Amino acid sequence: MCGIVGYVGAIGGNDAIDVVLDGLSALEYRGYDSAGVAIPTPEMTVAKAAGELSALEETVSRDELAGEAVGIGHTRWSTHGAPSDDNAHPHCDEAGRVAVVHNGIIENYQRLRDDLVDAGVAFRSETDTEVIPHLIGRYLDRGADPEEAFRLAVDHLEGSYAIAAVVEGSETVYAARQDSPLVVGLGDHGTYLASDVPAFVEHTDRVRYLEDGDIARLSADSVAVTDVEGRPVDRATETVAWDAEDAEKSGYDHYMLKEIHEQPSSLRQCLRGRIDELEGTVDLPELDTIDHDGPIQFVACGTSYHAALFGAERLRTGGMDAHAFLASEYASDRVPVDEDTLVVGVTQSGETADTLRALREADRAGATTLAVTNTVASSAARECDHTLYIRAGPEIGVAATKTFASQQLALALLAFELGDGPTRGELEALRDIPGQVQTILETTDARAVAETFVDADAYFFIGRGYHHPVALEGALKMKEITYRHAEGFAAGELKHGPLALVTEQTPVFAVVTGAGETARKTIGNVKEVEARDAPVVAITDGTSDVARYADHVLELPAVDDLGASVLANVQLQLVAYWVANLLGRSIDKPRNLAKSVTVE
Amino acid sequence: MTIRSAVVLAAGEGARLRPLTKYRPKPMLPAATKPIIEYVFDALVEAGITEISVVVGYGRTHVQSHFGSTYRDASLEYVGQDKQLGSGHALLAAESEVSEPRLVLNGDQLVASRLVEDVRTAHDDGDAIATLGLIRDENVAEYGGVICGDDGHISEIVEHPRDDRTYQLNAGVYAFEPALFEYLRGPEPQLREYSLIDGIANAIDAGAAVRGVTSDGIWIDATYPWDLLEVTATLLEHADGVGSSVSADARVHESATIVEPVAISADCVVGPDSVVGPNVALGENATVGANAVVEDSVVDADTRVGSGATLIDCVTGRNVRVGPGSTVVGGPGDVRVGDRVHETERLGALLADRVRDGGGVTYAPGTVVGSDAVINAGTTVRGTIETGTEVQ
């Protein structure tokens, strides 16, 4: 979730300070609470500031640092220590010769810190990171050269990390990776380092992904990658297709609204070439080699977990034994997993630390692993046995929208691929979904509903069956971007406790489609709410009579269960967006949140 | 100085194309399978324009989401015009973006890059405050005309000229100096609208140099819904148009008959024993069922033509459901638009966005069905059916 940028410029290259600050700005969407840079030549210059990137820009002079070719930078999201200037990266050794930026968590930092303090080292911050520059400094004091000192320091570290370091007077950037992404870019005007490709994609699309245990030395015209013992390792150069222009707002006020409106085309991309109505088939050739009839476990976090709940239900409908687990609880829950298990990690970024950890646990237990992700060549895609891409395109808003819809469709395709395949009706319904999402975007009353309830005390969301994950996701979206209290429940659970919270000031959003058993039961729950005088917003296709008990209706076209879940979610995305907009929230970068959570 | 940037005016609805414009603006209606405005962008890019500001208003999200922030080699920037107060007002919305001469085009008329290049070259070479692209067209009374001398000097600009002087048609392709903005603002706009034409007339009255350049590149305007059929046929036939094509991402059953020219988009499905063409455009993800016949028609995205249905001279919106065995027998027919009846136009039927028919429906020539209408099975319909109604 933190961002790392590094650069070693060639002759005729850019000023390092410009490349680093622009790179940090390109990573801004990941969310952060402080930022900093270090330029090691001619003498070490370190600048850092809590708050927005503009605060850092005010403390550092691009003019004074013009002409310097080497630098590193960081945007931080607090895990240890409050956001403050002191706790911001880079961190230095006592002599100020070494500057280090770091993503991840050093698990043994307390012991390392105690040892260093015992040896007389004075710490300036509360962070785990600060042990690294002190370690490097100690080895430099003992006569090690910078590369050796860096390697010896990294050897002490336990935990997850992506590290970049510079040493005063040296035109080199040192880097190390363990369980936290780092990628090197090879350009005509120098060598780049970043936690995420967009930081330098305007300069080059030729990249090398570092793997766990790698140590890299970046110079102006090359990168040398070695293992911890210093033996050279070969990392292939790949070309990334990432259109930086895609990351602009295209006339929308927020990336989130842009991405909500991109859903019809993302969903078309997700389906393209994968379904054939003439043959009546779903075909995912990338999964042809999976021959599986054992249990299926989904692991995921946040919005992806809601997609996983939905996916597991699709698979169970297809007669398979499938369940979804929170990735962060997967290991501690002692979920039984063996060679007969297929473990599916759902992660938009492919870098979610909790999900990667769960996938690695599963891999160790001998399970087959499948990554369902949006990010080509991400850690999840590279580590899993199989990968299914959701093809949603880059998503910048921290609150996931189009990637959730694409995850839903991709998982529906997975259920057909692993199960019996779709009926003609189901295929027609799948093909209709993108156009129906467009219909909702054109006809929605979500803004009016948001205006009515912008001052509510809390928001509750209920749904049953396929609509239960939709209710959970509707509440999560509301929490993330409005900072208001919101909860999603299985509709039947309301009466087992949460009903005590329901008042005239708590609108209840009920997702009800069709007129079958499930709808009838949910309508029963709606009546319970109505009897407590809570306003009810029904998200419905109008097949049942739920509108009679509702104060507002958000309409859906008449569709099957799969389509209804995708479409109902779009309505709830829009309600959350408009409530947050009316409240003036920082919609694309909500407080305390980051796009891709790379710590456990 | 060579002009590299352009403003495209795409904020208006295009009311004469109702009910197709109920949800999206005229620039986003399909000419063959591409939105009209895409031809404008193509012409600009081919003429070497690299920065395009798009003035958007009515249905703006359609333009923004379709094109995003780049089109081919050009960057796209969107400028909102919240109230549609005329073309001059639209251009003023983009004023802060304009510091040097640039091109201004209507986003709802198809132009060839030739016309764009001619205007740019003439403007670069001259000292005019504005240079207008002109074509010789007999329908000048429907649009705007100019009186242009042999030296290219424009002495008069008139909307809908009715007299019998020799006018050339103003093709809506302009090159402007920033100084023209002063004339757009005053003196007083007519009817509280700021028209671009008034602004140019103000400049002429003030003695500023306004020139015209006559070109013979393609210029097509779809004024009424049935014009989309003619536009599509022209584009499919012409070498300068789009040509006949079937997307690699479409599925056409081996027993289907494709009668060229046709344009079949990505994700389309054409069922067994159907006949598609000639002069048919199928939008993205459209479906033609088994044994259906589609001729001389524009079928927009996500529409399904049921098994055994027949569409001749038909324009559909998006997401329309033509049920099995329904028949659009073809034009000509009398079509009512607003208060005016257009007699014997070539229109079998117009079915706006999300019209649903239950199958076995017969459409009399010239039928116009508003969006979201539902037509029950076995009905015969004629005339105008309002948006959202149910026909038993």
UniProtKB/TrEMBL annotation, chain A:
<dbReference type="InterPro" id="IPR029055">
    <property type="entry name" value="Ntn_hydrolases_N"/>
</dbReference>
<feature type="domain" description="Glutamine amidotransferase type-2">
    <location>
        <begin position="2"/>
        <end position="221"/>
    </location>
</feature>
<dbReference type="InterPro" id="IPR035466">
    <property type="entry name" value="GlmS/AgaS_SIS"/>
</dbReference>
<dbReference type="InterPro" id="IPR001347">
    <property type="entry name" value="SIS_dom"/>
</dbReference>
<feature type="active site" description="Nucleophile; for GATase activity">
    <location>
        <position position="2"/>
    </location>
</feature>
<dbReference type="GO" id="GO:0006002">
    <property type="term" value="P:fructose 6-phosphate metabolic process"/>
</dbReference>
<dbReference type="InterPro" id="IPR047084">
    <property type="entry name" value="GFAT_N"/>
</dbReference>
<keyword id="KW-0677">Repeat</keyword>
<dbReference type="InterPro" id="IPR046348">
    <property type="entry name" value="SIS_dom_sf"/>
</dbReference>
<dbReference type="Pfam" id="PF01380">
    <property type="entry name" value="SIS"/>
</dbReference>
<dbReference type="GO" id="GO:0006047">
    <property type="term" value="P:UDP-N-acetylglucosamine metabolic process"/>
</dbReference>
<dbReference type="Pfam" id="PF13522">
    <property type="entry name" value="GATase_6"/>
</dbReference>
<dbReference type="GO" id="GO:0097367">
    <property type="term" value="F:carbohydrate derivative binding"/>
</dbReference>
<dbReference type="InterPro" id="IPR035490">
    <property type="entry name" value="GlmS/FrlB_SIS"/>
</dbReference>
<feature type="domain" description="SIS">
    <location>
        <begin position="449"/>
        <end position="590"/>
    </location>
</feature>
<keyword id="KW-0808">Transferase</keyword>
<comment type="function">
    <text>Catalyzes the first step in hexosamine metabolism, converting fructose-6P into glucosamine-6P using glutamine as a nitrogen source.</text>
</comment>
<keyword id="KW-0315">Glutamine amidotransferase</keyword>
<comment type="subunit">
    <text>Homodimer.</text>
</comment>
<dbReference type="GO" id="GO:0006487">
    <property type="term" value="P:protein N-linked glycosylation"/>
</dbReference>
<dbReference type="InterPro" id="IPR017932">
    <property type="entry name" value="GATase_2_dom"/>
</dbReference>
<dbReference type="InterPro" id="IPR005855">
    <property type="entry name" value="GFAT"/>
</dbReference>
UniProtKB/TrEMBL annotation, chain B:
<dbReference type="Pfam" id="PF25087">
    <property type="entry name" value="GMPPB_C"/>
</dbReference>
<dbReference type="Pfam" id="PF00483">
    <property type="entry name" value="NTP_transferase"/>
</dbReference>
<feature type="domain" description="Nucleotidyl transferase">
    <location>
        <begin position="6"/>
        <end position="236"/>
    </location>
</feature>
<comment type="pathway">
    <text>Nucleotide-sugar biosynthesis; UDP-N-acetyl-alpha-D-glucosamine biosynthesis; N-acetyl-alpha-D-glucosamine 1-phosphate from alpha-D-glucosamine 6-phosphate (route II): step 2/2.</text>
</comment>
<keyword id="KW-0548">Nucleotidyltransferase</keyword>
<dbReference type="InterPro" id="IPR029044">
    <property type="entry name" value="Nucleotide-diphossugar_trans"/>
</dbReference>
<feature type="domain" description="Mannose-1-phosphate guanyltransferase C-terminal">
    <location>
        <begin position="258"/>
        <end position="384"/>
    </location>
</feature>
<dbReference type="InterPro" id="IPR011004">
    <property type="entry name" value="Trimer_LpxA-like_sf"/>
</dbReference>
<protein>
    <recommendedName>
        <fullName>Bifunctional protein GlmU</fullName>
        <ecNumber>2.3.1.157</ecNumber>
        <ecNumber>2.7.7.23</ecNumber>
    </recommendedName>
</protein>
<dbReference type="GO" id="GO:0019134">
    <property type="term" value="F:glucosamine-1-phosphate N-acetyltransferase activity"/>
</dbReference>
<dbReference type="InterPro" id="IPR018357">
    <property type="entry name" value="Hexapep_transf_CS"/>
</dbReference>
<comment type="pathway">
    <text>Nucleotide-sugar biosynthesis; UDP-N-acetyl-alpha-D-glucosamine biosynthesis; UDP-N-acetyl-alpha-D-glucosamine from N-acetyl-alpha-D-glucosamine 1-phosphate: step 1/1.</text>
</comment>
<dbReference type="InterPro" id="IPR050065">
    <property type="entry name" value="GlmU-like"/>
</dbReference>
<dbReference type="InterPro" id="IPR056729">
    <property type="entry name" value="GMPPB_C"/>
</dbReference>
<keyword id="KW-0511">Multifunctional enzyme</keyword>
<dbReference type="InterPro" id="IPR005835">
    <property type="entry name" value="NTP_transferase_dom"/>
</dbReference>
<keyword id="KW-0808">Transferase</keyword>
<keyword id="KW-0012">Acyltransferase</keyword>
<dbReference type="GO" id="GO:0003977">
    <property type="term" value="F:UDP-N-acetylglucosamine diphosphorylase activity"/>
</dbReference>
